Amino acid sequence: MNLRRVVVTGLGALTPIGNTVPEFWDGLSNGVSGAAPITRFDASLFKTQFACEVKNLNVEDFIDRKEARKMDPFTQYAMIAVDEAMKDSGLDLEKTNLHRAGVIWGSGIGGLKTFQDEVVDFANGDGTPRFNPFFIPKMIADISAGFLSIKYGFKGPNFVTVSACASGTNALIDAFNYIRLGKADIFISGGSEAAVTEAGIGGFNAMKALSQRNEDPKTASRPFDNDRDGFVLGEGAGALILEEYEHAKARGAKIYAELVGGGMTADAHHITAPHPEGEGAANVMKFALEDAGLTPEDIDYVNVHGTSTPLGDVSEVKAIQKVFGEHAYKLNISSTKSMTGHLLGAAGAIEAIASILSVKNGLVPPTINHFTDDENLDSKLNLTFNKAQKREVRAALSNTFGFGGHNCSIIFKKIDE
């Protein structure tokens, strides 16, 4: 089958370390931590009292107040990030076949704040069922793609992927496949999440998944460090405009990179713990490389899932060594979650952007907050500790893994025109 090529022509980011793509990349390049005490609610009674929140955002600068009230924050974040990506792409909607333009978005949870607030209000009431008429539309995860298609008039495939923390990458892979199979020419894709709520922090605390380093939030997300104690919850959105290569070329579009392959697997092991030997993680990277027609030696940078959990970090490194062999020692490996925290369903989207910009700019973002080596990790690996490193990045592979054993890997490379 003659598969079509897929390129990235627009980027948008709303993150804990920057509300635009340039701000996000500046934060990554300079090793900025987005973690701070929670401002969304009084977290003083919670085991974890900090998170990586989006900062200095006035939603009404981007969305009309009346419209914004119909949206949960996860949808608001999607709309804001996509606005930047669409402007960046330079697409002229009047000259675009909107029937061949679609939206595939990702969110692991969807409208958590909406669900929480409506149930709390009902529980605190007199028992009379008074619910906001927008309760259900605000809550359901697919509504983000619905709002986006309505705003831009995109009438092609339209849905949201839900695969926990792999959702954003899952969405990108699905959009990639639709384009290369000739089902569409353009996709808005990426992911958003807004889980910094009482229910979000409390739920992850109950699982013992979050760091409890309340005395020093900025250093709490420390992937691969011996003293890591869990991940830091983040929020935000990442948006990519994916486009068929010839379509992009014909309109003279700016091209950031080519999306060349993706893989998806399941651990089939445990609902929250990774496979101890990284079996699913190794297989998904192998499948992504095969899909891209690349060898391990073609990859220069791996943006890891790297959440800062005791089990997850070790199993992912084992998987990388299994797949890349001796070339693993020539790779740059880093976890940008050390800076952004874990954006759950949006993680894959912002980490895809980090990978694309590493290819474009020849710079690998660091894994910050490294203080003590973990004897379970090979010290000869270049985990890009504490400072960004300059190097040519011909191709970058990005991993995202989710509760339920969902694994996704995606590969971006320099465009060969």
UniProtKB/TrEMBL annotation:
Enzyme Commission designation: 2.3.1.179
Reported function: Involved in the type II fatty acid elongation cycle. Catalyzes the elongation of a wide range of acyl-ACP by the addition of two carbons from malonyl-ACP to an acyl acceptor. Can efficiently catalyze the conversion of palmitoleoyl-ACP (cis-hexadec-9-enoyl-ACP) to cis-vaccenoyl-ACP (cis-octadec-11-enoyl-ACP), an essential step in the thermal regulation of fatty acid composition.
GO molecular function, one term: hydrolase activity
Pathway membership: Lipid metabolism; fatty acid biosynthesis
UniProt cross-references to NCBIfam families, sorted A to Z: fabF, PRK07314.1
Organism for this UniProt entry: Belliella calami
PANTHER family per record: 3-OXOACYL-[ACYL-CARRIER-PROTEIN] SYNTHASE, MITOCHONDRIAL (PTHR11712:SF336), POLYKETIDE SYNTHASE-RELATED (PTHR11712)
PROSITE patterns to which the protein is assigned, alphabetical: KS3_1, KS3_2
SMART domains in UniProt: PKS_KS
Catalysed reactions, semicolon-separated: (9Z)-hexadecenoyl-[ACP] + malonyl-[ACP] + H(+) = 3-oxo-(11Z)-octadecenoyl-[ACP] + holo-[ACP] + CO2; a fatty acyl-[ACP] + malonyl-[ACP] + H(+) = a 3-oxoacyl-[ACP] + holo-[ACP] + CO2
UniProt keyword Acyltransferase, yes or no: yes
Protein keywords: Acyltransferase, Fatty acid biosynthesis, Fatty acid metabolism, Hydrolase, Lipid biosynthesis, Lipid metabolism, Transferase
Name of the protein described by the UniProt record: 3-oxoacyl-[acyl-carrier-protein] synthase 2
Domain of life according to the entry: Bacteria
Ranges where the Ketosynthase family 3 (KS3) domain occurs: 3-414
